[in-house]
Write a structure and sequence with these properties.
Blueprint (H helix, E strand, L loop, with lengths): L1 E4 L2 E5 L10 E5 L6 H8 L11 E2 L2 E2 L2 E4 L2 E4 L2 H8 L2 E4 L11 H11 L5 H14 L15 H13 L5 E5 L7 H16 L4 E4 L3 H7 L2 E6 L2 E6 L1 H6 L4 H10 L1
Parallel strand pairs: 3-10, 3-11, 8-9, 9-10
Antiparallel strand pairs: 1-2, 4-5, 6-7, 11-12
Helix pairs in contact: 3-4, 3-5, 4-5, 5-6
The chain binds adenosine-5'-diphosphate (ADP) and magnesium ion.
Length: 244
């Protein structure tokens, strides 16, 4: 995948395969293109070159007679519904209760009946440990609670793939654990996940693959043991030395 913003080439040919049901953790310094890469994965950004497939289907494009055609907005939106995204800054709708936040897209986009959407939302709130907050507004919740709601909201669309962009970076240290626990459970259940994170413990324990990105390329990729304990590249070693 290649992506530039004007004359700034941000992704200089990033190759990555994430197997079904596996967790891929992406590490790398600020500005290395991690967020851009995730945003390209669900076509929030157009890519300039390369291809992306999720579950065998091209994202954002359709192939016909060996040529690629960009999808219409409506089709892109439908496709994006299969990819859940959780951001650093939660992005809950402030004027809606927790429950309303979670049922909005299943009803609006998936055309789920309200009773069914509510039942699903309550199941998901139980899973993230927030049953008692269903009627609360986001502003009354802690950052860790808001992020768990954001995860429940993404899961309500029954995504095939979940993308996390530094989901714990905006949290007070004592709230990081509760969000990582929810993500660990999700991984254990077999969700396919791409997680940009600075939580080395999480990458080590939960990641099936660890990817180190720098300067718009994948510098090093492997199992956690390979990347953390048998680091091959000097750039990776320098980064790991600074963060751990
Ligand atoms: P990371 O998430 O690894 O910190 P980003 O993907 O956010 O990196 O950014 C990579 C580079 O792309 C940075 O130099 C950033 O300033 C630039 N960039 C990101 N988004 C845009 C944009 N919409 N327009 C112009 N430059 C951008
Ligand atoms: Mg980023």
């Amino acid at each position: 995948m290649r992506k530039s913003f004007g004359s700034l080439e941000v992704l200089k040919g990033v190759n990555l395969t994430v197997d079904y049901g596996k967790v891929c953790c992406i590490l790398g310094p600020s500005g290395s293109g991690k967020s851009t890469f995730l945003r390209c994965m669900n076509h929030l950004e157009k890519i300039d070159g390369g291809l992306l497939r999720v579950g065998g289907s091209l994202v954002g494009y359709r192939e016909h007679d060996g040529k690629l055609y960009e999808m219409r907005q409506k089709e892109v939106a439908r496709q994006r519904a299969d990819i859940g995204m959780v951001f650093q800054g939660f992005h809950l709708f402030p004027h809606m209760t927790v429950l309303e936040n979670i049922i909005e897209a299943p009803i609006g986009i998936r055309k789920m009946r309200k009773a069914e959407a509510v039942a699903l939302a309550m199941d998901l709130l139980a899973k993230v440990g927030l049953t008692e907050k269903a009627q609360a507004y986001p502003a009354t919740l802690s950052g860790g609670q808001q992020q768990r709601v954001a995860i429940a909201r993404a899961l309500a669309m029954k995504p095939k793939l979940m993308l996390f962009d530094e989901p714990t970076s905006a949290l007070d240290p004592e709230l990081v654990g509760e969000v990582l626990t929810v993500m660990r459970d999700l991984a254990r259940e077999g969700m396919t996940m791409v997680v940009v994170t600075h939580e080395m413990g999480f990458a080590r324990d939960v990641g099936d693959r660890v990817v180190f990105m720098d300067g718009g390329v994948v510098v090093e990729e492997g199992t956690p043991d390979e990347v953390f304990n048998h680091t091959r590249e000097q750039r990776t070693r320098a980064f790991l030395g600074k963060v751990s």
